[in-house]
Design brief:
single chain; about 80 residues; alpha+beta; 4-stranded antiparallel beta sheet; globular
């Protein structure tokens, strides 16, 4: 699995919010979103999907979305 860190989230962000963002971007995930206050983790099926998620979802600050510096693959 390729775990992604998603930061700069609203403290009210819920797993369903992130599910919608990834679904809209057509990025599959493997398992549930682990959401904490201000950040979350999720697994992508493989490295190519993790990189696509970073590329697709790191377009800069947008309402309800993480900023470019906040979405990255963890080792």
């Amino acid at each position: 699995m390729n775990k992604l860190y998603i930061g700069n989230l609203s403290e009210n962000a819920a797993p369903s919010d992130l599910e919608s963002i990834f679904k809209d971007a057509k990025i599959p995930v493997s398992g549930p979103f682990l959401v904490k206050t201000g950040y979350a983790f999720v697994d992508c099926p493989d490295e190519s999907w993790a990189l696509k998620a970073i590329e697709a979802l790191s377009g800069g600050p947008q309402p309800g979305r993480p900023s470019a510096s906040a979405l990255r693959r963890l080792p």
